[in-house]
């Protein structure tokens, strides 16, 4: 444990109110613009990690950019089918926050902006600063910081 900066005693880590995950490259293998549920493949250890969080009573959610919708590469029903397959393989999530916009759309939800984190936290009834965000790229980390929280990066495998 890291010592507390004033007392020198071990600092206690505060339990997060929720854990939010990026989808592609974090929970499931990244298949660019995936519109086929059959191609969904969980990342090694993802199910076990999610089950531990569920057993601890922590709400979990997904915050994911899906610009393939804006680009016309993924239809909304296909996106819903892929997300349903993710839940089939990894178990239920308490919230899904999806940005279907493209890079040039200028929306507030597309990571690295904080909109997805803010939306997911609001849906869960927790403060964004009390959420942990886990993702595989810098945009995930930047979105968490923009929402007032640190984040963890898990390298792609």
Distance between the termini: 28 Å
What is the residue-averaged pLDDT? 91
Shape: globular
Helix content: 25-40%
Give the helices and strands as they follow along the chain.
EHEHEHEHE
Oligomer: single chain
If helices are DSSP runs of H or I spanning 4 or more residues, what is the number of helices?
4
Main β sheet profile: 5 strands, parallel
Describe this structure in words.
The protein is an alpha/beta fold. It has 4 helices and 5 strands, in the order E-H-E-H-E-H-E-H-E. It has helices spanning 46-55, 76-90, 115-124, 138-146, and strands at residues 18-21, 60-65, 95-99, 131-135, 151-153. The protein has a 5-stranded parallel β-sheet. Strand 2, helix 2 and strand 3 form a beta-alpha-beta unit.
List descriptors:
157 residues; alpha/beta; 5-stranded parallel β-sheet; 4 helices; 5 strands; 15% strand
Can you give me a brief rundown of this structure?
The chain has 157 residues and is an alpha/beta fold.
Q: Which helices and strands, and how do they pair?
A:
Layout: E1 18-21, H1 46-55, E2 60-65, H2 76-90, E3 95-99, H3 115-124, E4 131-135, H4 138-146, E5 151-153
Parallel strand pairs: 1-2, 1-4, 2-3, 4-5
């Amino acid at each position: 444990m890291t010592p507390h900066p004033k007392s020198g005693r071990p600092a206690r880590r505060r339990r997060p109110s929720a854990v939010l995950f990026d989808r592609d490259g974090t929970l499931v293998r990244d298949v660019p613009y995936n519109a086929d549920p059959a191609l969904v493949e969980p990342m090694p250890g993802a199910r076990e990690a999610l089950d531990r969080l569920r057993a601890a009573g922590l709400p979990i959610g997904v915050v994911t950019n899906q610009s393939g919708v804006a680009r016309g590469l993924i239809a909304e029903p296909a996106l819903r089918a892929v997300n349903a397959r993710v839940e089939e393989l990894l178990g239920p999530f308490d919230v899904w926050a999806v940005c279907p916009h493209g890079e040039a759309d200028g929306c507030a939800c597309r990571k690295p902006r904080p909109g997805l984190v803010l939306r997911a936290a609001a849906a869960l009834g927790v403060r964004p600063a009390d959420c942990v965000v886990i993702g595989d790229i810098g945009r995930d980390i930047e979105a968490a910081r923009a929402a007032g929280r640190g984040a963890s990066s898990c390298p792609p495998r």
